[in-house]
């Protein structure tokens, strides 16, 4: 066989005695995995379907009212103003991604140290891979489907289908979000299922998916009073005790923290994404590490997320179509299963197996006009380096009162 199936090339063997707890690394989780709505892709209708969105219409003249004619020509026949009708049509097609593990031969597991724990760690990583792949698809689909791509620069430039060829000059600000909020209300997003409920007083709330840096900057904007509104609102006291990264409500937006937001460089009028992870050599096999270029990337994207922008249509599991047919039903969500496929030449005794996960869905457009993507600057090097206060603690400068049981930040 051309390929080696030695588990000891990937799992640590029991030589020179391995001691202590079996440690493992995790792939960062994301809020995107619980945002996108899922529905069923119907069977028996092909792999490409259409979706129709009925548009809004008004008469050409909404403000002119005519006198009532009580005699002669025009009586009993009022002047009419026709209201038009139209719809937008879009198609969506099934796509898939198949993932596999390295192959494993049972004969080479005998000398592996704590092989069951190592196998469990391997499967756990594969499950996190599925989650990460879905997270990446959610972000790329939202950027592709959305009709509003802004750059945080003078004039707040916008394109419908791609990022404007303008280099960002500003971080994400509350005023930018206020502009988007006003646009969403004007578009009727709160009526068409795009808001995340209403706050006290009836104001619709929308989702902002952003980084912890950007959310913190917005909360602490000079002159915005955002931090006072957040700290001293008694309805939010429990949130003060939650760790960084948990949702918070600030001025019409429910902040969802993405721990690995998409980051970019800019050159020649084009934004290039810097992906978070890179694969490097481990003592055996490979491992992931965060790219230094990702840590230092000067720009990142935030999103005003509305669930009606798109959904994923996932096919139903199928075990039979009658007439004694039978298949292994698939969830198509990247659930990992163990396969041992016997083959006369490559696996004659059925001693070689591997994990396999299948992801499949169609991106069903909803109301793309509700999707907002904002490319903005991040100040990665601005760490507010400050020397020690030789006279004592500066905790008296905190916005928190003396009775608040919360550490000074």
Short descriptors:
single chain, 409 residues, alpha+beta, 9-stranded mixed sheet, 7-stranded mixed sheet, 6 helices, 18 strands, disordered C terminus
The fraction of residues assigned to DSSP E strands is 25-35%
Largest sheet entry: 9 strands, mixed
Shape assignment: flat
First and last CA, distance: 60 Å
User: If you average the pLDDT, what whole number results?
Assistant: 83
**How is the quaternary structure best described?**
single chain
Overall strand count: 18
Number of helices: 6
What are the segments in which pLDDT stays under 50 over at least 5 consecutive residues?
4-8, 14-20, 240-246, 404-409
Radius of gyration: 28 Å
Write down the secondary-structure element order: EEEEHEEHEHHHEEEEEEHEEEEE
Output the structural class.
alpha+beta
- In helices, the fraction of residues equals 10-25%
Question: Would you mind describing this structure in some detail?
Answer:
With 409 residues, the protein is α+β, with helices and mostly antiparallel strands. The chain has a domain at 47-55 and 119-317 and 361-379. It has six helices and 18 strands. The strands form three sheets. Strands 5, 6, 7, 8, 9, 10, 11, 14 and 18 form a nine-stranded mixed sheet that branches. Strands 1, 2, 3, 4, 15, 16 and 17 form a seven-stranded mixed sheet that branches. Strands 12-13 form a two-stranded antiparallel ribbon. A hairpin with a 2-residue loop joins strand 10 and strand 11. The longest helix is centred in the N-terminal third of the chain and has 31 residues, at 115-145. The termini are far apart. The model is unreliable at 4-8, 14-20, 240-246 and 404-409 (pLDDT under 50).
């Amino acid at each position: 066989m051309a390929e080696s199936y030695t588990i000891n090339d990937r799992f640590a063997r029991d030589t020179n005695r391995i001691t202590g707890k079996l440690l493992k690394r995790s792939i960062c989780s994301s809020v995107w995995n619980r945002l996108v709505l899922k529905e069923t892709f119907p069977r028996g209708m092909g792999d490409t379907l259409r979706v129709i969105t009925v548009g809004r219409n008004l008469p050409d003249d909404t403000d002119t009212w005519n006198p009532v004619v009580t005699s002669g020509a025009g009586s009993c026949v009022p002047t009419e103003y026709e209201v038009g009708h139209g719809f937008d049509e879009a198609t969506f097609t099934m796509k898939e991604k198949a993932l596999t593990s390295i192959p494993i031969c049972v004969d080479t597991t005998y000398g592996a140290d704590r092989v069951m724990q190592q196998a469990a760690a391997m499967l756990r990583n594969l499950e996190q891979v599925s989650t990460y792949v879905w997270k990446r698809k959610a972000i790329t689909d939202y950027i592709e489907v959305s009709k509003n791509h802004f750059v945080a620069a003078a004039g707040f430039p916008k394109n419908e289908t791609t990022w404007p060829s303008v280099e960002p000059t500003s971080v994400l600000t509350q005023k930018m979000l206020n502009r988007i909020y006003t646009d969403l209300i004007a578009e009727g997003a709160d009526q068409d299922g795009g808001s995340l409920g209403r706050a006290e007083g009836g104001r619709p709330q929308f989702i902002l998916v952003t980084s912890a840096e950007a959310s913190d900057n917005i909360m602490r904007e000079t002159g915005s009073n955002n931090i006072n509104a957040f700290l001293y609102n008694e309805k939010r006291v429990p949130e003060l005790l939650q760790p960084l990264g948990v949702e918070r409500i600030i001025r019409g937006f429910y902040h969802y923290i993405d721990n690995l937001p998409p980051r970019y460089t800019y050159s020649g009028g084009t934004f290039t994404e810097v992906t978070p992870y890179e694969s490097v050599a481990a003592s055996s096999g490979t491992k992931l590490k965060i790219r230094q270029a990702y840590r230092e990337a000067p720009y990142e994207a935030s999103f005003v997320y509305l669930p009606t922008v798109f959904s994923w249509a996932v096919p139903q599991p199928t075990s039979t179509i009658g007439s004694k047919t039978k298949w292994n039903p698939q969830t198509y969500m990247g659930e990992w299963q163990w396969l041992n496929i016997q083959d006369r030449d490559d696996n004659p005794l059925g001693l070689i197996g591997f994990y396999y996960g299948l992801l499949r869905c169609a991106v069903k457009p909803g109301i793309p006009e509700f999707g907002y993507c904002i490319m903005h600057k991040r100040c990665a090097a601005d760490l507010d380096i400050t020397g020690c206060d030789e006279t004592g603690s500066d905790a008296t400068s905190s916005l928190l009162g003396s009775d608040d049981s919360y550490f000074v930040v």
